[in-house]
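User: As part of a screening pipeline, I want to sanity-check one entry by hand. Below is the sequence and the SMILES for magnesium ion. Please return the complex as structure tokens so I can compare it with the automated output.
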Amino acid sequence: MYAAPSSVSAPPPPYRPQAGGGRPYAAGAVPAGALPAGGRPQRAMGGGGRTLSGRIDLSGPQGTQLRTAIAAVHRICPEFHPVQVLRRSGRSVLIVGTTGRATAVAKCLLDHSPAWTERARQEIAAYRAFVRHRPPVRVPRLVAADPDNCTLVVERMAGRPAALQRHPVEAPPRADIKTVLQAVCRVNQWRPPAGLFGVPLDYAGRLNRYHELGLLTDRDTSDLQKLLHGLAHAAGRQGGQGQGQFCHGDALLSNFLLSPAGPVLLDWDHAGWYLPGYDLATLWTVLGEAPAARRRISRLAQAAGPAARDAFLVNLMLVLTREIRTCETAVQRMMRDPGPVLPGATGSPGEAQRLLLRRLHDDCGMARRAVRAAVGTR
Ligand SMILES: Nc1ncnc2c1ncn2[C@@H]1O[C@H](COP(=O)(O)OP(=O)(O)O)[C@@H](O)[C@H]1O
Ligand SMILES: [Mg+2]
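Assistant: Here is the complex for your manual check:
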């Protein structure tokens, strides 16, 4: 059995992430606190440089990009009045605005490379599917969408993100984790009609790719392939039914908004059918500072028996390997360009990334041992 071994990893010391930093791994979303959902825009308060001012700066090359994005929004939603940039990355920009009496969020793709275009279209397809088939969690209402231009406008929801960072440096409150886990379990029990959602992850292909990149050893790969074969065999016995689970596919805490009306799930571009436990594996991975939550997740993942446990372990190894790869890239980038150390910061952002990387390697070692044990019991 997979005994949640989170106590093995040495907890890294707390650190202060760069405020509003542009590094995708270090900084989380800007809090969406400047506008009341569904109400009139208020003037945003500058909170430690994290919230943006109520004005949108349309000067310079970034302004040109923003004007293009707003023009794309106006083509599908002429009444959209932009108020504030919520978040911007090289990939996309999120703009809060008003549409008559309501507030909305426009998500516009900036990098139209094929991979990002595909993902943006997947997210639009998910929101369109939700119009007729409501999922068992709260999601923003679709206002307008243009898959050709990869522009999506949805209702702005009230609430605070369950975390701002991808890997929170402090354990979130227990009540928040409970809410998030309940929401994920509800999503995972949902069976939307066949054909609405695809299969976003090619497990065998992903395994081979990580093996070729040297991220998985020969032994890891063969162990995981054995688990995959066992799962396929079990699915065959059930006539191909019962193995797939509907997952959000990117169950990071920053994709949950918590509000008194209940949690809201955002960012649906990876939604579809996975081996059971993909969302739980994602949450386990990012909750390194919450060992009790990890134990709970492991118990949930194993509750349905050995096949569910094996599926969770395959998912966990793939998610951890992806995180290690992304984190290694971030560490290398920071070594090339360390950036300024902020006043009051304890430890450089590069050091925080290195500590995260070390923890992820520890976690991967534990998952690897659990995979070996699972293969041994088959
Ligand atoms: N409809 C919405 N209502 C309120 N806040 C939102 C909404 N959509 C996005 N946000 C905020 O913007 C952040 C980024 O949105 P998300 O769709 O997750 O984009 P990304 O793909 O860049 O992660 C979220 O974490 C959330 O704080
Ligand atoms: Mg997100």
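Points to compare against the pipeline: The pocket of adenosine-5'-diphosphate (ligand 1) is lined by residues 29, 32, 86-87, 89, 92, 94, 105, 107, 140, 154, 156-157, 161, 254-255, 257, 266-267 (CB under 6 Å). Residues 306-336 form the longest helix (31 residues).
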